[in-house]
Amino acid sequence: MADAAVKEKIATTDAAGPERELTDGFNLVIDALKLNGLNTIYGVPGIPITDFGRMAQAAGIRVLSFRHEQNAGYAASIAGFLTKKPGICLTVSAPGFLNGLTALAHATTNCFPMILISGSSEREIVDLQQGDYEEMDQLAIAKPLCKAAYRILHAQDIGIGLARAIRAAVSGRPGGVYLDLPAKLFGQVIDAEEGRKSLVKVIDPAPAQIPAPDAVKRALDVLKNAKRPLIILGKGASYSQADDAIRNFVEKSGVPFLPMSMGKGLLPDTHPQCAGAARSTVLKDSDVVVLIGARLNWLLSHGKGKSWGEPHSKKFIQIDIEPKEMDSNVEIAAPLIGDIGSCVSALVDGMGSSWPKAPADWMGAVSKKRDENVAKMAPRLMNNNVPMDYHGALGVLRTVIKERPDAILVNEGANALDLTRGIIDMYKPRKRIDVGTWGVMGIGMGYAIGAAVETGKPVLAIEGDSAFGFSGMEIETICRYKLPVCVVIFNNDGIYRGTDVNALGTDPATTVFVKGSRYDKMIEAFDGVGVNATSPDELRRAVNAAMDSGKPTLINAVIDPAAGSESGRIGNLNPQSKLRKK
Ligand code: ADP
Ligand code: TZD
Ligand code: MG
């Protein structure tokens, strides 16, 4: 009945006689969202969507107000990744829309389903460029940055408009969709019965896409002849939620697997077939590579070059829902187009009951390399240095996650990212969420909020001090909604390192921040728990307390400013001039 209570029932008597029940744009958007199970909105209020947010909240939709739209957008994008339903971000016109747009582009780039709904100003004035309040042709600007962009002009089209947006976001390769709702739409009144009939419940929004049988056979033929096969699990595999099928395929084939950053945990990083700690060996020496929901982009050195061993020494089998992804960088010997669940299940079925496991000498060589690397790392993780280095701090946090495999790990930074990814083992699917395809800074607090809200699980956010700054104000949001988020800032006084000096003049170097900052004090302003941790022991105590209590906590982990390296693990991507010898 909550619905009925908030619905403005406007009773009118027209000349023709009996009273008619009316509805309006506000209520139709709310009804259309709820009908499609979209029960959470991340946004920032203001003209023309303030009342809409209030009414949505009163109608039982969870409406979370942020301090900046970009963070709300990141929360929506990760909600999409975690749930396979489009995450909804709601903004005001022009500047609010633009703030949300970065997140929409990010969702599209990362293949996460998301809908950015922005209010917009009067079309007549915008189109004549007569200078309206927050005037901007938002639809045109959004178009190149998302999968689809729609505008709804009439209340009776709200149902179909939202249906299109949902289907565009989740079907095929998922991505971002922009939905433009002009201010006037909200107030439009139509007959309530007509309104109800105009709503659309999207049936089977992301239909199974079954791979062709001959493509399955081709893939199995290539795999069967492999001497040194490798499976790479990307974030598309995590997104697909085909966890059992993927585990079956990996275990039945006996092939070592390499998880991409957000593919970690699909199978535990401690699984005997995991080749995470033997990455360079498997990339270089494998002869057949099965890509499951992972693109051959920069994160995999485009599938060629030194890290991939001899040129043309491998055959690729690629599973992806997007046909255009095939041959993007190198020839794909066996393209398998379809959704990952259907494709991987078809492979498992086709393997039958007597499929030969991957050659034992190959698996043996991979495990040997992995065990050596793990053993080499172990003592570094146990160091008790003060000031802490990344390894000492991460040794502690690694145990925190091991003891709480259901917790979600959010991670951004440079060294703070690369070292965390390498050191912290994940045990369950979709528990590690990070900077993604762009390596973007700023996802931290939005992701932490989205993950806490969507999963109800505790969140540990490991943040570089620079990375944190991009979304730091949202700690107020975390405190306001009392979310179980523990933020650990690896505070090394700057970007990459805190030791840079300006070659000329008195301004600080471009990569350094105020020395000895106390980020922990920020959260105290909002009644959260702040801790300054200078040793691994202090860090352990503080994080355990936060994860157990669920109280919003911010820990300033003091890291040796000299501990990091330029750009973390990707320093090689910095352009070099022959003129400027290093
Ligand atoms: P990573 O960064 O982890 O390597 P990418 O983002 O590069 O992963 O690749 C994810 C791929 O997964 C994209 O090419 C996308 O089209 C694909 N994908 C996403 N969801 C599915 C799905 N349900 N079925 C098949 N492919 C999918
Ligand atoms: N702006 C955006 C939106 N994304 C980016 N990736 C960058 C700038 C450039 N950048 C990186 O690639 S990492 C990084 C920046 C600014 C911050 C690294 O510093 P940190 O981590 O404190 O977060 P470490 O531990 O000091 O390396
Ligand atoms: Mg730093």
What does it look like?
- Helices cover 39% and strands 17% of the residues.
- With 582 residues, the chain is α/β, with parallel strands linked by helices.
- The chain has a 6-stranded parallel β-sheet with strand order 4-3-5-6-8-7, sandwiched between helices. Strands 16-15-17-18-20-19 form a 6-stranded parallel β-sheet, sandwiched between helices. Strands 11-10-12-13-14 form a 5-stranded parallel β-sheet, with helices on both faces.
- Strand 3, helix 3 and strand 4 (62-65) form a beta-alpha-beta unit.
- Ligand TZD binds at residues 413-416, 439-442, 464-467, 490, 492, 495-496, 564, 568.
Helical fraction: 25-40%
How many strand segments?
20
The gross shape turns out to be globular
Ligands bound, unique: adenosine-5'-diphosphate, ligand TZD, magnesium ion
Mean pLDDT value: 96
Q: What oligomeric state best describes the polypeptide chains here?
A: single chain
Tell me the structural class. Answer: alpha/beta
Taking the alpha carbons of the first and last residues, their distance comes to 70 Å
Secondary structure: elements and pairs:
Elements: H1 2-6, E1 10-13, E2 19-24, H2 25-35, E3 40-43, H3 50-58, E4 62-65, H4 69-83, E5 87-91, H5 95-110, E6 114-120, H6 123-127, H7 138-142, E7 148-151, H8 158-170, E8 176-182, H9 183-187, E9 189-191, H10 192-198, H11 213-224, E10 229-233, H12 235-240, H13 243-253, E11 257-259, H14 279-285, E12 288-292, E13 315-320, E14 334-337, H15 340-351, H16 360-381, H17 390-403, E15 408-412, H18 415-423, E16 432-434, H19 444-455, E17 459-464, H20 465-469, H21 475-480, E18 485-491, H22 520-524, E19 529-533, H23 536-549, E20 553-558
Helix pairs in contact: 2-8, 4-5, 4-19, 11-15, 13-15, 17-18, 17-23
